[in-house]
């Protein structure tokens, strides 16, 4: 078995260099049809010209006929098409984009959010601080495909999901998925799946067309329920998670931190709120399934579908590698009972970076209930749309007449709003963890705890232990861990690279520890 299992792909495309050890690990996963690896890599079969997810039920190909790719786009570039049996892109996304936090990973976060469709490759490159040519070289080297190919693969996946599970017209699906024309849409779907959009739809099992009906067999990432979209732009989505999935923990967190009049968790476990998307404000309702979240959204534009899916996936941390996280943390004698009680812990994410920072600063030195009340009042009095918290520009303009409390805190919030509004403080998923945290800590009134907390939620950073947090320290002491921040940080090194999840377990420990 050679050290580099590269195939000379078509059109100058490149594939990931795979060592013997990594090949053997991935081939074992493929041979055992291990669904835990779905979305984490792609298996290309050169003898058939297709690529599959690791859990594909088809006969396992011979090792000599297998090439592994990190993205579907790289498999496309190598001249392969998607398997019609296992549908390899109908799975949770890769957790790698949060764990690695490098240029390629940040690019993937932006591509999933639809930046290429809105701003083109130059806009994507500018957000990452590179030229288009430099970024293309990086992505080809790291992921085996350039930004256009990666965006095309994302569009094709979104479109296929809507074709097989919604009653949207083909033209509407093309637009919602981000294609520039129906012709481009048709050509891409034929190239990727060797089927026309109409054929893809015809091959799909028909579902109950009642709005809100649940298909028990649905596993498609971002799939929409049939009949769920109407003239008002209301669409229903099922977003799968990698099992195990503690969605109830995220939902409880969101409910306990719900801004008054802006967010609401009802008795039936439905969380509702409005959120800003590129085309306007969407009204969203979210509920849980065992291995997924259900989303019903009134969209300002169908073009906002991809950003909506990306942000809800981040809010519920749906792409986390739960098996790997639980294996590391469950081996710790202190955390083991906590992990056993709550497998699949998730990090509550963010749908709006500035909103997350604002609410964190508003909540400093007051109770959660008081912070929820203050956030709701700020939305009513400072936002152009009281359904959502104000933008940075709105707060910079109206904040002096609205914000209350200690003068230094008010001044710090206004300063941050001004810098976020003029672009000198960038708050988005294009930033690396270290860059964002350093920029936040450089702002007056923002310390290490606030910076770490915001970076953890906005970027989904998996390895942040907020050792100075008072609740964390108190709970750590109850668990027999040191309450001193320095010593707790030292102990926490054994939880790397999943210290954010370890912190969440400790935060939630009081309900489990007598």
Please describe what this structure looks like.
- Helix content is 46%, strand content 10%.
- The protein has 23 helices and 10 strands.
- The protein has helices at residues 20-31, 72-77, 96-99, 103-112, 115-128, 132-143, 147-165, 170-177, 182-193, 197-203, 247-256, 305-315, 322-330, 336-341, 353-362, 368-382, 392-402, 407-422, 433-441, 448-459, 470-478, 485-492, 499-507, and strands at 42-45, 50-52, 66-69, 81-82, 223-224, 234-240, 263-265, 271-277, 280-289, 292-298.
- A 6-stranded antiparallel beta sheet has the order 5-6-10-9-8-7. Strands 3-1-2-4 form a 4-stranded mixed beta sheet.
- Helix 7 (147-165) packs antiparallel against helix 8 (170-177) and helix 17 (392-402) runs antiparallel to helix 18 (407-422).
- The longest helix has 19 residues, at 147-165.
- The protein is globular and about 70 Å long.
- The termini are far apart.
Fold topology:
Layout: H1 20-31, E1 42-45, E2 50-52, E3 66-69, H2 72-77, E4 81-82, H3 96-99, H4 103-112, H5 115-128, H6 132-143, H7 147-165, H8 170-177, H9 182-193, H10 197-203, E5 223-224, E6 234-240, H11 247-256, E7 263-265, E8 271-277, E9 280-289, E10 292-298, H12 305-315, H13 322-330, H14 336-341, H15 353-362, H16 368-382, H17 392-402, H18 407-422, H19 433-441, H20 448-459, H21 470-478, H22 485-492, H23 499-507
Helix pairs in contact: 4-5, 4-7, 7-8, 7-9, 7-10, 15-18, 15-20, 17-18, 19-20
């Amino acid at each position: 078995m050679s050290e580099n299992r590269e195939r000379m792909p078509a059109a100058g495309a490149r594939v990931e260099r795979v060592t013997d050890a990594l090949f053997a690990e991935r081939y074992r996963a493929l041979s055992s049809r291990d669904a835990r690896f779905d979305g984490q890599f792609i298996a290309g079969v050169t003898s058939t010209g297709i690529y599959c997810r690791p859990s594909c039920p088809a006969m396992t190909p011979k090792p000599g006929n297998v090439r592994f790719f990190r993205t579907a786009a790289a498999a496309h570039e190598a001249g392969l098409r998607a398997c019609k049996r296992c549908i390899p892109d109908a799975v949770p996304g890769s957790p790698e984009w949060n764990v690695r936090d490098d240029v390629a990973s940040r690019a993937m976060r932006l591509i999933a959010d639809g930046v290429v469709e809105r701003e083109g490759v130059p806009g994507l490159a500018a957000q990452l601080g590179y030229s288009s040519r430099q970024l293309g070289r990086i992505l080809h080297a790291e992921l085996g495909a350039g930004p256009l190919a990666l965006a095309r693969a994302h569009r094709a996946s979104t479109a296929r999901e809507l074709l097989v599970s919604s009653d949207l017209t083909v033209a509407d699906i093309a637009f919602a998925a981000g294609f520039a024309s129906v012709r481009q849409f048709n050509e891409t779907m034929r190239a990727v799946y060797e089927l026309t959009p109409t054929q893809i739809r015809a091959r799909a099992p028909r579902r109950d067309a009642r709005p809100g009906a649940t298909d028990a067999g649905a596993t498609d990432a971002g799939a929409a329920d049939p009949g769920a979209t109407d003239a008002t732009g209301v669409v229903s989505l099922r977003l799968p998670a990698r099992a195990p999935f503690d969605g109830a923990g995220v939902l409880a967190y969101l409910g306990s931190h719900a801004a008054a009049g802006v967010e609401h968790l009802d008795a039936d476990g439905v969380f509702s709120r409005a959120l800003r998307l590129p085309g306007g404000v969407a009204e969203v309702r979210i509920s849980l399934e065992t291995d997924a979240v259900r989303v019903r959204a009134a969209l300002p534009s169908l073009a906002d579908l991809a950003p909506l899916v990306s942000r809800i996936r981040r809010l519920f941390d749906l792409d986390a590698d739960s098996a790997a996280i639980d294996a590391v943390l469950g081996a710790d004698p202190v955390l083991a009972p906590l992990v056993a009680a709550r497998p699949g812990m998730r990090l509550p994410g963010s749908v709006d970076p500035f909103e997350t920072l604002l609410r964190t600063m508003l909540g400093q030195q007051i109770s959660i209930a008081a912070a929820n009340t203050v956030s709701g009042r700020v939305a009513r009095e400072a936002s152009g749309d009281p359904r959502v918290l104000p933008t940075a520009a709105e707060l910079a303009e109206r904040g002096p007449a609205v914000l209350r409390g200690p003068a230094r805190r008010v001044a710090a919030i206004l300063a941050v709003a001004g810098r976020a509004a003029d672009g000198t403080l960038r708050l988005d998923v294009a930033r690396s963890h270290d860059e964002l945290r350093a920029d936040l800590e450089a702002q007056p009134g923002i310390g290490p705890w606030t910076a770490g907390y915001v970076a953890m939620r906005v970027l989904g950073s998996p390895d942040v232990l907020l050792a100075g947090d008072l609740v964390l320290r108190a709970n750590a002491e109850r668990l027999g861990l040191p309450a001193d921040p320095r010593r707790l940080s030292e102990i926490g090194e054994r939880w790397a690279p999943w210290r954010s999840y370890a912190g969440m377990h400790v935060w939630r420990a009081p309900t489990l520890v007598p």
